[in-house]
Amino acid sequence: MGDKLLNQIDDASFRALFDLYWKPLVAFCQHHIKDDEIAMDIVQDIFHSLWRRRDGLQIETRMEYYLFRAARIKVSDYYREKFKRENQNHCLSENFCERINNTEETILFRDLDHFVDGLVNRLPCRCKQVYTLSRNSGLSIPEIAEQLEISEKTVEAHLTKALRFLKTYLH
């Protein structure tokens, strides 16, 4: 199911998505937010929204990509709201407030994105193409193989190489 496009969600497909992605999405959010309860709330909101919009849903990418993109957006929203609350509290207690657009966490998150982009740019050309099509465009391995006119095994090898390279620098 992770590689399929899905435009209609019934009880069974929703349960399958939930079972497949609940834990990885919670782990992703926990990693970025460092609060288990908030991470679970975010993932619950994602699935609640998915269920609420199930009849009119038009998803043009793989569900895995769609769900993790939703999680990234929710994490960013969390930090934006957290900053607003902290900033409002500071304004009330100090009677002085200078508006700042980004929290330190958001800046660090953007710095990390920029750092990852820099690492991706250091990958060999074909490896970089495969990684970008997979992670940024949300294409499946067969779709990448077809687009680049290479075998699926070659796509998998390039993805493995790219992820190993990124993991080395990110840990």
The ordered string of helix (H) and strand (E) elements is HHHHHHH
Distance between the amino and carboxyl termini? 30 Å
Judging from the principal axes of the Cα atoms, what is the shape?
flat
**Total beta strand runs:** 0
Structure, described:
It is a single chain. The chain is mostly helical and 171 residues long. It is built from seven helices and no strands. The protein has helices at 11-33, 36-52, 63-94, 104-121, 125-135, 141-148, 152-170. Residues 1-5 and 96-101 have low confidence and may be disordered.
Sum this structure up briefly.
The protein is mainly α and 171 residues long.
Annotation keywords:
171 residues; mainly alpha; flat; disordered N terminus
How does the SSE layout of this entry go?
Elements: H1 11-33, H2 36-52, H3 63-94, H4 104-121, H5 125-135, H6 141-148, H7 152-170
